[in-house]
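Good day; I would like, with your permission, to put a structural problem before you. The record follows directly beneath this note:
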Amino acid sequence: MTDYRVPLQDMRFVLFDVLQSSQLWQSLEGLGEVDEDTAHAVLEEAAKICEQVIAPLNREADEEGCHWSAGEVTTPDGFRNAYQVFNEGGWGGLGGNPEHGGMGMPKSLVSAVEEMLQGACMSFGLAPMLTAGACLAVDAHGSDELKQTYLPKMYSGEWAGAMDLTEPHAGTDLGMIRTRAEPQADGSYRVHGTKIFITWGEHDMAENIVHLVLAKRPDASAGTKGISLFLVPKFIPAADGSLGSRNALACGALEKKMGIKGSATCVMNFDGAQGWLVGEVNQGLAAMFTMMNYERVVVGIQALGTAQWAYQNAVAYAHERIQSRSPTGVQNPAAEADPLLVHPDVRRMLLTAKAYNEGGRAFTSMSRSGSTGRNTPPTPSCASGRKIVSPCSHLWPKRLSAIRPLRPR
């Protein structure tokens, strides 16, 4: 199997030749110092980490998987070190709000780094992806106290994030959730319930895990109109920001999966865990959509990263595998047959896959070209176009990743 290689040249072409991103960034508030040289440096350093540190973990992590014991989850060998290296470079806060420790880089540049990360190892990439989404929701809807307490630690990677929606009896129909949040005299809540299919709900890479949990207050109305959003940490922070006591939540089991076994998909039990309201009462679903919409876009980027790696493997296989002779005459007289690459239909399939990848990359980059990690609205053209382009950037790359040319048998 071919090692993943970051398509740096293609990424640069989309950002600077197609989208003219450096000129756009100069027109956006707070990005005056982000020029093309800075972006090149970001892409090159991210590529080194993804190729040299993260990608080598991909196959072994899926074979080894995560392990559960007495509520604790152990990640595959190498994940903890890779997570430390990733966060030492500040990559978790690349698109974060600078007011709370993020770098505030343009989202189109962040998208390129996300593609590298997901192409290198999706199991690993899911962890910073969920943390980034949780940060967006807290930054957009949380109180100043929550932002100051949690965002700096989450941007640094010391604390991770998780999204807790689904319950054993309620999947997409979230109006049926039974997880309840009981208000306390100090303004906090006690959360009771069980959530399932929680990606990276528990692990040993970060010292704390911040769960964004959908639940209902005792007086909530039926259906989705009664849902509120709560921040529930694994460890409750002390007044000075350090880790305090363990909260009343635990991983009850790991889900059995067909793939992506290097990432922990958890059953999470909340037994009166202390949590804090994010946003307004009964507006939890709207607040959670800030995180969900981000995750949807990055799922499309996941598909793009997977499709790129599949294309790289297909090209390598077409070079190595010999079969029949070229219709234009013998190309490799020293062997019994010519490589697959000489056959016109094989080249057509490879070029088609390459075109889909480049189109998907341009699509996702364009959908985020007018956004930054700062609390400033996107450009008007970006805001209007995003309503159409963002859903497409989520769905279309997933469809193209299903195209698997020249798989070895």
Q: What stands out?
A: The two ends are 12 Å apart (CA to CA). The domain at 8-155 is CATH 1.10.540.10 (Butyryl-Coa Dehydrogenase, subunit A; domain 1).
